Amino acid sequence: MDVMGDKATLLETGRFVQPSGPEDMGEPAEAAEEARRRLAAEAGDVEAMSVLGAMLLRRGDLDGAEPLLRAATGEGDRAAANNLGVLLHQRGYAEEAAGWWRIAAVAGSAPAAHALGRHHRERGDEPAAEYWLRQSAEQGHTLGAYALADLLEHRSDVGAERWMRVAAERGHREAAYRLARALDRKGAADILAAEEERTPAAEAEQWYRQAAARGHRRAALHLGSILEKRGDLKEAGRWYLTSAKDGEPRAACALAFLLRDAGDEESAAVWWLRAAQDGDGNAANALGALHAQRGETQTAERWYRAAMDAGDNNGAYNLGLLCAEQKRTQQAESWYRRAAYAGHREAANALAVLLLQHGDATGAEPWFSKAAEAGSVDAAFNLGILYAGRTGEEDEAKALEWYERAAAGGHTEAALQAGIARLRDGDEQSAERHLRCAAGGGSPEAAYRLASLLDVRRPPETRHELGEPVIQRSECEEWYERAAEHGHRRAQVRVGMLAAARGDVVEAARWYREAAEAGSRNGAFNLGLLLAREGSEPEAALWWRRAADAGHGRAALRLALLRTRRGDLVEGQKWASRAVELGPAEVAERAARLRDALRQELSA
Question: Domain containing 245: what range?
Answer without folding.
Answer: 201-290
